[in-house]
UniProtKB/TrEMBL annotation:
GO molecular function: oxidoreductase activity
Protein name stated in the entry: Aldo/keto reductase
Keyword Ribosomal protein: no
Record family assignment: Belongs to the aldo/keto reductase family.
Keywords: Oxidoreductase
Superkingdom to which the source organism belongs: Bacteria
Domain NADP-dependent oxidoreductase: 33-267
Residues bound to substrate: H117
PROSITE patterns xref list: ALDOKETO_REDUCTASE_1, ALDOKETO_REDUCTASE_2, ALDOKETO_REDUCTASE_3
Site feature: Lowers pKa of active site Tyr: K84
PANTHER family, sorted: 2,5-DIKETO-D-GLUCONIC ACID REDUCTASE (PTHR43827:SF1)
Pfam families: Aldo_ket_red
Keyword Oxidoreductase assigned: yes
Lineage: Bacteria, Bacillati, Bacillota, Bacilli, Bacillales
Length: 281
């Protein structure tokens, strides 16, 4: 099923509902711009906000959430807030502590989704045990991972009591991750895209422009629509109100099977971020 509107959700394997579409705040620094972006997104109808400890902007995200709630009158329960534990905090006790620190900065009582940010070898299993504890204690609604390849997921699930609900990875038309997507689908793990617009590198692509012209849509909107029709949750980053609005205007058209295949055909297995098998942080 493809999302019909900005508040449409997918149901994770534990029954929790996660919006198909959200806003990411990677590399957005603390300050008025960040607060305004989060608040604007909520006012516009976004219900999912994605941050991480390493972004060092959880306090501003929390402020934007509080202001957005106040101005729209929605409840905290209507929002879906994600954060991630950073590599230096991977470990049982240290992950539980990091979760508390993230909550404090955000000013929230719980998170909807907490992710292991990167699969640091020899460390992510202990961190996963901590996430399972947080989940079993009801302190977080859903748990998952980020940047995990198939072999990382297989390794994790060998010892895990609870399988991840989400895997957030780099995903765009130059990196279609078909094997990983099929694996996640088979195991009921929801795939989520970071950097869906490839940091703007695809916005001049002729194929995307051509498809967009047919529908009166931008290449960015075509890509985000492609994500949704592929069953991938997506969280484009933007701080500008007009872009936040434009990114979400992807529910009033549908790509044909042929157009989906043309976009799939742009794949080059090309990353803008690090390869999860080869990172040094």
């Amino acid at each position: 099923m493809t999302a019909k509107n900005l508040q449409d959700t997918t149901t994770l394997h534990n029954g929790v509902k996660m919006p198909w579409f959200g806003i990411g705040v990677f590399k957005v620094e603390e300050g008025p711009e960040l607060v305004h972006a989060v608040k604007t997104a909520i006012q516009y109808g976004y219900r999912s906000i994605d941050t991480a400890a390493i972004y060092e902007n959880e306090a501003g995200v929390g402020q934007g959430i509080r202001e957005g709630i106040k101005e729209t009158g929605i409840s905290r329960e209507e929002l879906f807030v994600t954060s991630k534990v950073w590599n230096s905090d991977l470990g049982y006790e240290s992950t539980i502590k990091a979760y508390g620190a993230s909550l404090n900065k955000l000013g929230l009582e719980y998170l909807d989704l907490y992710l292991i940010h990167w699969p640091v070898e020899g460390k992510y299993k202990e961190a996963w045990r901590a996430l399972e504890t947080l989940y079993k204690e009801g302190r977080v609604k859903a748990i998952g991972v980020s940047n995990f390849h198939i072999h990382h997921l297989e390794d994790l699930m060998e010892d895990a009591e609870i399988k991840p609900m989400v895997n957030q990875v780099e995903y765009h038309p130059r990196l279609t991750q078909k094997d990983l997507k099929a694996f996640c689908r088979e195991y009921g793990i929801q795939l989520e895209a970071w950097s869906p617009l490839m940091q703007g590198q695809l916005l001049d692509h002729q194929v995307l422009k051509e498809i967009g012209n047919k529908y009166g849509k931008s290449p960015a909107q075509v890509i985000l629509r492609w994500d949704l029709q592929n069953g991938v949750v997506t969280i484009p980053k933007s701080t500008k109100a007009h872009r936040i609005a434009e990114n979400a205007q992807v529910f009033d058209f549908a790509l044909t099977k042929e157009e989906m295949e043309r976009i799939d055909g742009l794949n080059q297995n090309k990353r803008v971020g690090p390869d999860p098998d080869n990172f040094d942080f």
